[in-house]
Write a structure and sequence with these properties.
The complex is a heterodimer of chains A (about 300) and B (about 300). Chain A is mostly beta strands. Helices cover about 0% and strands about 15% of the residues of chain A. In chain B, strands 1-16-2-3 form a four-stranded antiparallel sheet, with no helix packed on it. Classes of the chains: A mainly beta (about 300), B mainly beta (about 300). The interface of A and B includes residues 84 and 143 of A.
């Protein structure tokens, strides 16, 4: 198929007064792209972008970085899409890590921007899912976020879904992350005493949230599973599994990104988020936090 | 005859096949669209905010908002100017002007701060202005505006958003002001005041973005000060760099650089005078020691059809 952009229209191509002689029927080439466009570039790191001369607009799909792990799961990175004027550089958000830098980084190309997923102590930004126990972010188009959950409650749906509420009851289960365009992180389960403790699963979306961790109790600890994601070609990416053990393990799996599976938890170390913004899982007792999946940028023209 | 919306591109909203046909600059008010063109794709960039002027350290101005989309064709437009300079200390800057064509609108960047009364937040995607230090008091910056697409406002501080938040001013033994928040339009940097005579002070950098925010300014309020005061750099735009802050002296320098615009680089600061924001919405630099702030960069309107 020839490049539709190479055609020289004789008048306005898109408009209320469009002549049928000025357009070419176009085949769908991608799950997420407008008709006639082809995926030309996939960009994984910040830096230079080269767009051929004569292309006045490009269409982009992007994700921010996934939230880092905490005791609860990290939220999936925000997803944004749309037309923008081409630029010669881009910013790709890094996945969040443990601690104060847990919020995923933002991704921007031209005037399209997607925020990072939240960590356990923070909400998502610009479409990012909230970390467990926190709200998601309103997205680029103003689509509302999922609000902060109550204890033990599942996260609320939204463009950036809310994280699941923490478990406060021995033998109970933390709330699952909310589902949305970007899933929320699963809630943590920090209960003490003799009995079971179960972290919440990460929320589903184009980008999945990480599973929550379980710890402190004497008895069975079960980390939550990371939420699934959905790629631009329709591929379903899967979240990683959590670990289970008696008075040990209990780490959550990483959420899937828009371009890769989340990793499984191992022992008390939580799973990493998948490529394209997956949220990291929450750690088990005394373990190590996973890292959120890095953002990604797709450019069509 | 029936039409198939899946194969007929006239039903889509894609800006394919378009060419840049007209560029309108600040102060232009009329547009002539050829007969037969019922709608056009407009890119609106608003004016950047000017920096604030304080007897100590004024904040940088926020970058102008950026909006784009289809609109019906009209014969009028508004293209915003950059916020005008202020001088003499104790003055907030001025917000940038809005740019409007048909149903597409971009809001001006917020003014940089220089007084106890906060300037208005950015509007319609305009970034927040940086906070200041005046009368030995730390002042917060201001928030950005909700964008044309509905992306949320970023709160005051170094917060990412469609329009970034304005950085916080800081007064301390060694000042540590906030940079402007990053985004499509970068926020202004906060002013800095070091209270220990020998300590350096550096204003907060303007936020980077497609359009950069202005840098905050710097001051030393110690007795017989010797610390170097350096203005914050203007935020880098994707295409053009921000200007440098002025330095290599104490209080006679320390103004912030202008933010990079969509069309041109931000200007460097000089002495106590902030750099002008780059053409195409860059934020102006803040002024220290009662100097003159940098003006915001003018807005622009591009029409495609």
């Amino acid at each position: 198929m020839s490049n539709p952009l190479s055609k020289k229209p004789t008048g306005q191509v898109s408009g209320w007064d469009n002549s049928s002689s000025n357009y070419t029927d176009l085949a769908q080439t991608s799950f997420g792209a407008p008709y006639g466009l082809q995926l030309r570039q996939t960009i994984l790191s910040s830096g230079a972008v080269t767009i051929p001369a004569g292309i006045p607009f490009v269409y982009v799909i992007m994700t921010g970085g996934g939230g880092g792990g905490s005791n609860s799961g990290g939220g999936g990175g925000g997803v944004s899409w749309g037309w923008t004027v081409p630029q010669s550089s881009c910013i790709i958000g890094a996945g969040g890590v443990s601690g104060s830098a847990g919020l995923g980084g933002y991704t921007r190309y031209g005037y399209i921007i997607a925020g990072g997923g939240g960590q356990g102590s923070s909400g998502g930004v610009l479409g990012g899912g909230g970390g467990g126990g926190n709200s998601g972010g309103v997205n680029y188009y103003g689509i509302p976020n999922g609000a902060t959950p109550a204890a033990n409650a599942n996260g609320n749906i939204g463009a950036g879904a809310g994280g699941g509420g923490s478990n406060t009851t021995l033998n109970g289960t933390a709330g699952n992350g909310g589902s949305g365009i970007s899933g929320g992180g699963g809630g943590a389960s920090p209960v003490s005493g003799t009995g079971t403790s179960t972290g919440g699963n990460g929320g589903l979306g184009l980008v999945g949230g990480g599973g929550g961790g379980a710890y402190t109790n004497t008895g069975t600890r079960t980390g939550g599973t990371g939420g699934n994601g959905l790629g631009i070609d329709g591929t379903v990416y899967t979240g990683g599994t959590g670990t289970t053990g008696t008075s040990t393990n209990g780490a959550g799996g990483g959420g899937a990104g828009i371009a890769g599976n989340g990793s499984n938890a191992s022992g008390t170390t939580s799973g990493n988020g998948g490529l394209g913004g997956g949220g990291a899982g929450g750690l088990g007792g005394g373990g190590t936090d996973g890292t959120g999946g890095a953002g990604i940028l797709y450019i069509y023209y | 005859m029936s039409a198939n919306i899946n194969t007929n591109s006239s039903f889509s909203d894609v800006p394919l096949g378009l060419k840049l046909q007209q560029t309108k600059n600040a102060g232009d008010t009329s547009v002539t669209i050829p007969a037969g063109i019922k709608r056009v794709y407009a890119v609106c960039i608003a004016g950047g905010g000017s920096g604030g002027s304080s007897a100590q350290a004024g904040g940088g101005g926020g970058a102008g908002g950026f909006s784009a989309g289809w609109t019906y064709a009209t014969n009028t437009c508004t293209v915003g100017s950059g916020g005008a300079t202020v001088t003499g200390g104790a003055s907030n800057g001025n917000p940038g002007g809005n740019t409007v064509y048909g149903m597409i609108i971009a809001g001006g960047g917020a003014a940089g701060r220089g007084t106890s009364t906060a300037p208005a937040a950015g509007i319609m995607g305009g970034a927040g202005g940086g906070g200041s230090v005046d009368t030995a008091t730390t002042r917060a910056g201001v928030a950005s505006g909700i964008s044309y697409t509905g992306a949320p406002s970023a709160a005051a501080g170094t917060n990412v958003g469609y329009g970034g938040g304005g950085g916080t001013g800081n007064s301390a033994a060694t000042a540590a002001p906030g940079a402007g928040g990053a985004g499509v339009s970068g926020g202004g940097g906060g002013g800095a005041n070091s209270t220990t005579a020998g300590n350096a002070a550096t204003g907060g950098a303007g936020g980077q973005g497609l359009i950069g925010g202005g840098g905050g300014s710097a001051f030393n309020s110690g007795t017989s000060p010797t610390g170097i005061t350096t203005g914050g750099a203007g935020g880098a735009g994707d295409k053009f760099a921000g200007g440098t802050g002025s330095g290599s002296g104490t209080n006679t320098v320390g103004a912030g650089g202008g933010g990079g615009g969509f069309i041109a680089a931000g200007s460097n600061a000089s002495g106590n005078t902030g750099g002008t924001g780059g053409n195409g919405g860059g934020g102006g630099g803040g002024a220290n020691n009662s100097g003159t702030s940098g003006a915001g960069g003018n807005g622009v309107l591009y029409l495609y059809y």
